[in-house]
């Protein structure tokens, strides 16, 4: 289970890193979204992978850590808002600069 | 009394929210609200500074939940000093914006206080995750402010800035997750206890987290090779925003200072940082100086001087000794205020030169003797020439270096200073002396902008006059920073510190 979880995070990060290095704003925005998914899962997994455990300390029994879920919630809100902002800004850049290259450079250059 | 710690957070947050409601009523009421709150921040910050100067580390627990479970705000000498600096910088920047720049979009007076909220919060928080949250508040406001006024250059520079910082935020969260996964806490003082007593098998993870945090903070501070966004962004933004952004790189410097003295001390898991930082700092100075020499616009030149100043600060910090930190902390307020003043001065000069703006090329317009005199004063101050404070800061830095590292640091700092002087005199002569060719004079000198510029320059002179108390304070701050157990005791109680 741990292996699968870390593989998922690794694949998300790899795809995200590849996409943010692209030269067009659309793949960059998708890459940022994938990076933030990877980060959210990573934060979630830092509470350890347990199933069916109560969320608060109850003696010697295994417990699920509720704090990473609170952290993830904050990170999701911020990440979601920022992805929306990047999309809006990319559209603005497309309008102002005349193309969707991240440096605003067109094919003619 | 201790509730006053909340004031630097609540005042700007409230002002931002009130201004959001006042958007329909035009800039008049919004200006009043922003000016009143920003002006009120200064006495509050000074009050907190006096409190912190007694050597006491003040802890404030929101909702009275005990640390490490609740949200902690920690006020020590370093955060108090930076709060005062933020307030001192914000007021002139805001006054300068009332010259008309704040009307170029309707949300300036919403974003400006929220930016202050984020900056002040980052300085006060005692929790790593809240540091992330306040960073985000600060960055989100700064995205809006950087794009304020619109236009091709701002959008292009803003897009790079936003994307880079989002990647930085992801890395920050990965570092936070790593630390939480092994330590089970994110309270800075609690982490400090954990990292100093951590088992050997945890060390690789702690070292990885330390280097990740360094990368994130280096991006915020614009340290080589993560500085490339800064010159484009600062030169594209409107002058008051560029002036306020002078403190933003220092937030990154603050975070480096806080993390690697308290959470991951360089004597423990932060050892790699202590090994990397001196070289990176010197390379930052060198590359910033080269950029300043090659700049074709005055604002780009000043932006590269910001990069040089960050490198100089880190050169002092990377020593992690009392003299090194003292030099950096003495230099910090000086360099922040003078670079902010230079951005405002550049706007004044550009306004006088009409269509050419701040491009370093000859036009038939002389910006005037007043601006010439101010530029001369500012150039001396920012290049670190005697008799102004920048010189004293660099002198302290040169004295602080232990002999083995001295040849490198002396060479880079002194040659970097020389490059700054060459770049500034080249800029000054083409702006003020080469009055040839065509050109139409621009507008006059907007009074708010001129007042703010003079105020910021006067503040740097004042810092020189009161260099002795400032040095004493910087030294006390450095001593406090290098005794992290004092913070741990203040936050978690006397037992935990032992």
From TrEMBL, chain A:
Species per Swiss-Prot/TrEMBL record: Desulfoprunum benzoelyticum
Topology class, membrane: Multi-pass membrane protein
This protein's name: Multicomponent K+:H+ antiporter subunit C
Recorded family membership: Belongs to the CPA3 antiporters (TC 2.A.63) subunit C family.
Database matches in NCBIfam families: PRK09094.1 (NF006573)
Superkingdom of origin: Bacteria
GO cellular component: plasma membrane
Main location as per UniProt: membrane
InterPro entries named among the record's database cross-references: CPA3_antiporter_subunitC, NUOK/Mnh_C1-like
Cell location: Cell membrane
Keyword Nucleotidyltransferase part of the UniProt annotation: no
Keywords: Cell membrane, Membrane, Transmembrane, Transmembrane helix
Transmembrane segments: 32-50, 70-91
Gene3D superfamilies recorded: 1.10.287.3510
Pfam families in UniProt: Oxidored_q2
From TrEMBL, chain B:
InterPro entries, alphabetized: CPA3_Na-H_Antiporter_D, NADH_UbQ_OxRdtase, ND/Mrp_TM
Alphabetized Pfam families for the sequence: Proton_antipo_M
Protein name: Multicomponent K+:H+ antiporter subunit D
Entry's Gene Ontology cellular component terms: plasma membrane
NADH:quinone oxidoreductase/Mrp antiporter transmembrane domain mapped to chain residues: 126-415
TM segment ranges: 6-23, 32-50, 70-96, 108-125, 131-150, 162-185, 205-226, 233-256, 276-294, 301-322, 328-349, 370-388, 408-433, 445-468
Membrane topology: Multi-pass membrane protein
NCBIfam families (UniProt xref): PRK12666.1 (NF009309)
Record keywords: Cell membrane, Membrane, Transmembrane, Transmembrane helix
MF terms (GO), sorted A to Z: NADH dehydrogenase (ubiquinone) activity
Protein family per UniProt: Belongs to the CPA3 antiporters (TC 2.A.63) subunit D family.
């Amino acid at each position: 289970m741990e292996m699968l979880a870390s593989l998922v995070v690794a694949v998300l990060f790899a795809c995200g890193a590849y996409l943010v290095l692209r030269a067009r704003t659309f793949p960059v925005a998708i890459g940022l979204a994938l990076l933030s998914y990877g980060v959210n899962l990573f934060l979630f997994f830092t509470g350890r992978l347990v199933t069916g455990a109560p969320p608060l300390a109850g003696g010697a029994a295994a417990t699920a850590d509720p704090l990473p879920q609170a952290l993830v919630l904050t990170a999701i809100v911020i990440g979601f808002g920022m992805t929306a902002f990047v999309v809006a800004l990319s559209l603005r850049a497309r309008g102002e600069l005349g193309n969707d290259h991240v440096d605003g450079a067109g094919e003619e250059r | 009394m201790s509730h006053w710690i909340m004031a630097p957070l609540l005042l700007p947050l409230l002002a931002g929210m009130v201004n959001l409601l006042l958007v329909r009523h035009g800039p008049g009421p919004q200006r009043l609200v922003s000016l009143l709150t920003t002006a009120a921040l200064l006495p509050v910050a000074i009050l907190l500074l006096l409190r912190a100067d007694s050597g006491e580390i003040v802890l404030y627990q929101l909702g009275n939940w005990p640390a490490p479970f609740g949200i902690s705000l920690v006020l020590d000498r370093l955060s108090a000093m930076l709060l005062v600096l933020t307030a001192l910088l914000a007021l002139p920047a805001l006054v300068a914006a009332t010259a008309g720049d704040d009307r170029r979009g309707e949300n300036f007076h919403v974003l400006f206080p929220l930016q202050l909220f984020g900056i002040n919060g980052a300085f006060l928080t005692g929790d790593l995750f809240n540091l992330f949250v306040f960073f985000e508040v600060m960055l989100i406001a700064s995205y809006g402010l950087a794009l304020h006024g619109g236009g091709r250059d701002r959008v292009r520079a803003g897009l790079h800035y936003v994307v880079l910082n989002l990647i930085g935020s992801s890395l920050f969260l990965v570092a936070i997750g790593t630390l939480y996964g092994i330590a089970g806490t994110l309270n800075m003082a609690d982490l400090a206890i954990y990292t100093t007593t951590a088992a050997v098998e945890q060390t690789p993870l702690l070292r990885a987290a330390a280097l990740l945090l360094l990368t994130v903070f280096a991006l915020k501070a614009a340290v080589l090779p993560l500085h490339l966004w800064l010159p484009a962004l600062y030169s594209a933004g409107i002058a008051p925003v560029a002036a306020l952004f002078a403190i933003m790189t220092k937030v990154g410097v603050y975070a480096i200072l806080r993390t690697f003295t308290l959470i991951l001390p360089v004597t423990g898991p932060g050892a790699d940082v202590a090994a990397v930082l001196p070289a990176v700092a010197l390379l930052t100075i060198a590359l910033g100086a080269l950029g300043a020499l090659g700049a074709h616009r005055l604002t780009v030149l000043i932006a590269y001087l910001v990069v040089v100043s960050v490198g100089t600060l880190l050169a002092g910090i990377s020593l992690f000794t009392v003299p090194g930190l003292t030099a950096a902390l003495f230099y910090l307020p000086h360099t922040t205020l003078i670079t902010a003043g230079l951005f405002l001065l550049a706007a004044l000069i550009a306004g006088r030169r009409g269509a050419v703006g701040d491009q370093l090329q000859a036009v038939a317009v002389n910006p005037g003797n007043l601006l010439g005199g101010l530029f001369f004063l500012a150039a001396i101050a920012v290049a670190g020439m005697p008799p102004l404070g920048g010189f004293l800061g660099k002198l302290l830095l040169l004295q602080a270096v232990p002999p083995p590292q001295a040849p490198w640091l002396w060479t880079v700092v002194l040659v970097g200073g020389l490059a700054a002087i060459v770049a500034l005199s080249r800029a000054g002569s083409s702006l003020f002396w080469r009055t040839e060719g065509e050109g139409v004079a621009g507008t006059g000198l907007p009074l708010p902008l001129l007042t703010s510029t003079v105020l910021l320059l006067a503040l740097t002179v004042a810092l020189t006059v009161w260099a002795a108390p400032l040095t004493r304070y910087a030294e006390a701050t450095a001593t406090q920073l290098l005794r992290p157990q004092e913070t741990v005791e203040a936050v978690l109680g006397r037992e935990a510190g032992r």
